[in-house]
């Protein structure tokens, strides 16, 4: 049969799509030990007397990515905390540690899926938000800013100054806007002078009636 000819079968096999292997990208959550307990069960005293199977179920070995991110966030908080009871400083309350984890997670996701524009936009927004917060901390307390960047492994890059190309059309438009603004200020000044004269005339009439 012509449909089962060896030449046609070879052509079909040649036209099959090639299955590409996914790149094995290392995750920033791989440094967490699998025997570490989850955040909710880490400080419970009863965990010292439970079975090993229960410990495995409540450890990071069986945890999801969201639970691992919670543990990673707590570790980053301990790095930037000024004292054991520090819960109100800007670097602890700020979103540096959470933003760092989300940005690293999105970077790994975009390496696997480079065409995901929505997550790329979210990552750029998180980067911009973190840059603003680091800029504020840099202005307020530079030593804390340096320590935070060092402990969280963040490289701060200040925003580039805005520059505009000066063209003839832009200069003419700017001069026209300035002229319109000045004419509007003159009209407002004339209206204010008229109102003041009316107020003074009313005040004089009221004084004359009282006398």
Automatic annotation (TrEMBL):
- The answer on whether this UniProt entry bears the keyword Coiled coil reads no
Where does the record say this protein resides?
Mitochondrion
Swiss-Prot/TrEMBL keywords: Mitochondrion, Ribonucleoprotein, Ribosomal protein, Transit peptide
Q: Does the keyword S-adenosyl-L-methionine apply?
A: no
Q: Which GO terms describe its molecular function?
A: RNA binding; structural constituent of ribosome
- Biological process annotations from GO: mitochondrial translation
InterPro entries reported for this sequence: Ribosomal_uS15 (IPR000589), uS15_NS1_RNA-bd_sf (IPR009068), uS15_ribosomal (IPR052137)
Q: Name one GO cellular component term.
A: mitochondrial small ribosomal subunit
- A Pfam family in this protein? Ribosomal_S15
Family classification: Belongs to the universal ribosomal protein uS15 family.
Put simply, this protein is called Small ribosomal subunit protein uS15m
User: Taxonomic classification, please?
Assistant: Eukaryota, Metazoa, Chordata, Craniata, Vertebrata
């Amino acid at each position: 049969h012509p449909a089962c000819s060896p030449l046609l079968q070879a052509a079909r096999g040649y036209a099959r799509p090639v299955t590409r292997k996914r790149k094995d990208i290392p995750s920033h959550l791989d440094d967490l030990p699998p025997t570490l307990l989850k955040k909710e069960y880490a400080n419970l005293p009863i965990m010292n007397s439970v079975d090993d199977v229960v410990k495995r179920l409540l450890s990071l070995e069986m945890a999801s990515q969201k639970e691992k991110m919670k543990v990673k966030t707590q570790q980053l908080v301990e790095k930037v905390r000024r004292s054991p009871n520090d819960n109100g400083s800007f670097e602890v309350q700020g979103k540096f540690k959470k933003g760092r984890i989300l940005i690293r997670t999105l970077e790994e996701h975009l390496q696997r899926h480079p065409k995901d524009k929505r997550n790329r936009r979210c990552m750029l927004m998180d980067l911009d938000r973190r840059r603003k917060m680091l800029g504020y901390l840099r202005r307020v307390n530079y030593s804390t800013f340096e320590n935070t960047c060092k402990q969280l492994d963040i490289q701060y890059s200040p925003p580039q100054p805005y520059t505009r190309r000066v063209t003839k059309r832009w200069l003419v438009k700017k001069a026209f806007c300035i002229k319109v603004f000045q004419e509007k200020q003159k009209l407002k000044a004339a209206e204010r002078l008229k109102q003041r004269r009316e107020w003074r005339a009313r005040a004089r009439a009221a004084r004359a009636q009282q006398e």
